[in-house]
Design brief:
The chain is of the alpha/beta class and 683 residues long. Helix content is 43%, strand content 16%. It contains 24 helices and 19 strands. A five-stranded antiparallel sheet has the order 2-1-5-4-3. Strands 7-6-10-9-8 form a five-stranded antiparallel sheet, sandwiched between helices. Strands 12-13-16-11-17 form a five-stranded parallel sheet. Helix 1 runs antiparallel to helix 2, helix 1 runs parallel beside helix 6 and helix 7 (200-212) runs antiparallel to helix 11 (320-365).
Length: 683
């Protein structure tokens, strides 16, 4: 209770009722409204206005509607800088101030009288203080102003003393109200942000709505720092309330701008509209209507992510209290962004793992029975015997053979006959990937290891842990990668690209090539130490011309297979056709024979298979210009298939499918052999 012998019981009763009423307030606006309602009558004034005081910025942020509504006379006074005002004097003196003739005074507020309907006023201002223990007895957190419009000599010394003592009593109440309001708002944000997964576009409006209940603003933005060719800059992730043209801001040097100062200090920045002359961008920001703003830094995972920007169309719109509250919201927002980022990474990794699981399931389903390696020739039986001998071991196997001999089928057979058959068989075609991607595919990479590495990737060697990895066309590995591959073979350890952690493996290695690796070693195209490490158990797959006795059996096998697949009633093959097939050298080997039979089955019209265009399959003995190298054989075979498919690479009946390879692999081989696809398309 106020104790002053010069005051009447009216003032005492007013103070008691006001204090009991203010204690129950849930927020700043309710506090301001009750304060005004209870003081207008005993002070015989027209307006009671409340300002929050900011010591660091020496500014006063208006709270009351009479000070924030643009049509109100008090609005212009609230927009003034603090220099030379009665509010500033009150804080400096630490006591209430009475002015019964504003028009005749030298206060800065008097300059506004020339622009308002009334010519004079009586003004009474008092500080709202709280006790502190840092060298000073009290600290001003706000000021309250009572104004009698158009009248002089309204207030007395008793009024001044009453308001001064009242300010000392209600200052701690205001402090508690502000703390309670902030706590409730932060708890609301916590409850909302932690529920489920959301995007930033959903998060910021949620934060803005809760923030607006405590701090009135006209603009909310989320800004992220980026590195551009010109240096540090920023990008607007979310903006609402005002249009900002980043190209207009580009004319200003970043290091002199407000975000740079905030970034350098790591502290939030309060711009009142009167304290930002040092920032070159102020003219543009004011031109879009923002006169006050707060910048609150956001730190995500220990790095400066960006900042939360809050703006107002009024000067002096924000106080230190608002800045501290916005900073707390910035902490919560930083954590939310970190969670969202982690959620996105988890989702990305989940999708990647799902893709890898599909890949693994497909690889496991690729199990092959040895019966698929059709034939009874001595050459094939020798190969099958070698497969049965090496399969139960963990030995590295180098499978050699021409294109189309079935090297991948042999690798699948070795895996299925091994103790690792219940684990994955991972296949990678070394010729189908650009050199820049092979290392990542084999060994994996960490997030950020290179451009577009947005998440960790598990490599094929890790996927094959406990199982088998099959490297097809191993001769195509770049030399620098051969050394890394050799280390993995010898140590069964690897590091992902961009990583430092050593990962231990247990993967059996099968490799295949249609190259003469010994010749490649002599030419310096293949490392000799890797060749000897791979050549532990060499396994040669005989070409079809060395096992001609198997052609009839293979032909019948393919007729049955594709007759059922294409629902064709083909049950046998003509003798002349079979004889012609048996005399052809088949540079594409079993794969070429399979595709020839499939095509013939598709176009067949009865139960007996005829191939009318056998002249395109001349025998080796009748062709005096037969190709001399594997590359020539492969080139002629690809040209033949492209001619049959009219230059079509993909699709069920395209050249890639007929050749039993991926479209990307075929394109790579065509480029290497100098074959243009456009030459085979109909005009």
């Amino acid at each position: 209770m106020l104790q002053c012998p010069h005051m009447g019981t009216v003032f005492q009763e007013t103070s008691e009722l006001l204090i009991s009423s203010l204690i129950t307030c849930k927020g700043l606006l309710e506090f301001d409204r009750k304060l005004s309602q209870e003081l207008v009558k005993p002070l015989a004034c027209d307006v009671v206005g409340l300002y929050l005081y900011s010591e660091s910025a020496n500014s006063f942020s208006p709270v009351s509607e009479a000070l924030t509504t643009s049509s109100s006379p008090g609005y212009l006074i609230a927009q003034l800088p603090s220099d030379g005002t009665m509010k500033e004097a009150v804080v400096q003196r630490g006591s209430a101030l009475l002015e019964n003739n504003l028009a005749g005074s030298s206060w800065t507020e008097a300059t506004i009288l020339n622009t308002v309907p009334f010519q004079t006023a009586s003004v009474l201002i008092a500080p709202l203080t709280t006790p502190i223990s840092k060298g000073r007895k009290t600290e001003t957190i706000a000021v309250v102003a009572a104004i009698a419009i158009g009248r002089n000599n309204v207030f007395t010394e008793s009024h001044r003393i009453f308001l001064e003592r009242l300010g000392a009593q209600i200052g701690p109440i205001l402090q508690n109200v502000l703390a309670s309001e902030e706590r409730d708002a932060l708890m609301a944000i916590n409850r909302q942000v932690m529920v489920g997964a959301m995007t930033i576009s959903h998060l910021i409006p949620l934060v803005r709505d809760i923030l607006h209940g405590v701090v009135r603003q006209d603009m909310t933005g989320l800004v992220r720092f980026i590195e551009s060719p010109q240096g540090t800059w920023f990008d607007i992730v979310y903006r609402e309330g005002v249009d900002i043209d980043l190209s207009q801001l580009r004319q200003f040097p970043f290091e002199q701008m407000a975000p740079a100062e905030m970034m350098a200090t790591g502290k939030p920045l309060l711009i009142t509209g009167h304290n930002h002359a040092r920032f070159p961008e102020r003219s543009y920001i004011e031109s879009v209507g923002i006169l006050s703003c707060m910048l609150c830094p956001l730190h995500v995972r220990g790095t400066q992510y960006g900042f939360l920007a809050i703006g107002s169309r009024r000067r002096n719109a924000f106080a230190e209290r608002d800045l501290a509250f916005a900073e707390q919201i910035g902490f919560h927002l930083s954590q939310a962004i970190a969670n969202l980022t982690a959620y996105e990474e988890i989702r990305s990794l989940k999708e990647q793992l799902e893709q890898e699981n599909v890949y693994l399931r497909d690889e496991i389903k690729a199990a092959i029975d040895l019966k698929t390696l059709v034939g009874e020739s001595p050459a094939l039986q020798k190969t099958l015997k070698a497969i049965e001998q090496v399969a139960p071991t963990d030995s590295t196997v180098l499978i050699m053979g021409e294109t189309g001999t079935g090297k991948e089928l042999v690798a699948q057979a070795i895996h299925q006959l091994s103790v690792r058959k219940d684990k994955p068989l991972i296949t990678i075609n070394c010729a189908a990937l650009p050199p820049t991607l092979i290392e990542s595919e084999l060994f994996g990479h960490e997030k950020g290891a290179f451009t577009n590495a947005i998440a960790r990737k598990v490599g094929r060697f890790e996927l094959a842990d406990g199982g088998t990895i099959f490297l097809d066309e191993v001769g195509e590995l770049p030399l620098d990668l051969q050394a890394k591959f050799l280390r993995v073979l010898e140590s069964q350890e690897l590091q992902r690209v961009g990583g430092t952690q050593t990962i231990t493996l247990n993967a059996r290695v099968l490799a295949a090539t249609n190259m003469d690796l010994q010749h490649a070693v002599k030419q310096g195209a293949f490392r000799p130490d890797l060749f000897y490490r791979l050549n532990v158990f060499p396994l040669r797959i005989p070409p079809l011309r060395e096992r001609r006795d198997d052609i009839p059996m293979l032909t019948r096998h393919f007729i049955k297979k594709y007759g059922e697949r294409h629902r064709k009633p083909v049950i046998r093959i003509s003798g002349s056709t079979l004889k012609a097939l048996a005399t052809y050298d088949w540079p594409g080997n079993v794969r070429e024979l399979e595709h020839v039979i499939e095509r013939a089955v598709i176009i067949s019209q009865g139960p007996v298979l005829f191939i009318d265009d056998l002249e395109q399959y001349p025998s080796h003995t009748n062709n005096g210009t037969a190709p001399q190298t594997l590359a020539e054989v492969e080139r002629l075979h690809i040209i033949e298939v492209l001619t049959q498919t009219n230059g079509t690479l993909s699709g069920k009946h395209g050249a890639a499918a007929r050749l039993g390879m991926k479209r990307t692999t075929l394109q790579h081989r065509m480029k290497k052999l100098g074959i243009s696809c456009s030459s085979f398309r109909s005009k």
